[in-house]
Design brief:
It is built from 5 helices and 14 strands. By secondary structure, the protein is mainly beta. A hairpin with a 7-residue loop joins strand 5 and strand 6.
């Protein structure tokens, strides 16, 4: 059952005073999502929020510490689009980095009705403009196990023996899904290419991670990358499809 946190907003100050979430100038601006409760849903209500520079958001709370317990609560929120855009710009790992959430009673209120740590899990954007349309977050209290899609980054390309010989790095997976304690979520998974020669590959279960993380894959021996002797030549059919 969706729950709303909206209470009566505190009386607005002078007409020219900006909302608290737009006044923040400290470093916490990039680490704390500022939001207010939202009462209405649907396309028209969402479009109205966006016209006013806001992003409809949902905060999910799990029924228990394990992800299989399902969703217990959905809090309807709205966040400031400019602040979210700045946070996304500052953090390339926004969807794998827990952040603070602060919910105020209203846009011009200083009264905090909810605060805690959350993990952003989905950001929907307009394909034409790139504007943020929706944000989905999950409560990330300590001890909660969360399924997280972690980006894969490859390091050591400049010293990789196979690449120095003219080989080609075939990136098979750009992300991997792990079950992580909320307090141990890494922003990314690093794959070290330093000692790989032509013909070598890195499997999912080859990647060292914190012991509290569990890889969620039906086949943990699938390769994440390979060092090929040369770049694969596209077939004529594929080239025609791209032309």
């Amino acid at each position: 059952m969706a729950q709303c946190l909206r209470g009566k907003a505190a009386a607005a100050a002078g007409g020219g005073v900006a909302a608290p979430w737009r006044r923040v100038a400290s470093a916490s601006y990039h680490h704390t999502i500022q939001a207010v409760p939202r009462e209405t849903t649907g396309p028209r209500a969402a479009a109205r929020e966006r016209r006013h520079g806001r992003v409809p958001a949902v905060l999910l709370t799990l029924a228990g510490a394990a992800p299989g317990n399902g969703i217990a609560h959905r809090k309807l929120l709205t966040a400031d689009r400019k602040q979210l855009a700045e946070m996304l710009k500052q953090s390339p790992y926004f969807l794998s980095t827990p952040v603070r959430l602060q919910v105020r009673a209203g846009e011009r209120s200083n009264a905090v009705v909810h605060s805690g740590t959350v993990l952003p899990i989905k950001v929907h954007r307009d394909e034409a403009t790139g504007h943020i349309l929706n944000l989905v977050m999950v409560q990330a209290d300590e001890g909660t196990m969360l399924k997280v899609n972690l980006p894969v980054e490859f390091k050591g390309e400049d010293t990789c023996p196979g690449l120095k010989k003219g080989g080609f790095l075939q990136k098979i997976r750009t992300s991997l899904v792990y079950l992580c304690p909320a307090e141990q979520i890494p922003p990314k998974i690093e794959v070290d290419l330093t000692n790989l020669d032509v013909g070598d590959r890195v499997l999912m279960n080859d990647i060292p991670v914190h012991p509290s993380l569990k890889l969620l894959s039906k086949n943990e021996t699938m390769p994440v990358c390979k060092i090929l002797a040369s770049k694969p030549v596209e077939s004529e059919t594929m080239q025609e499809l791209k032309s």
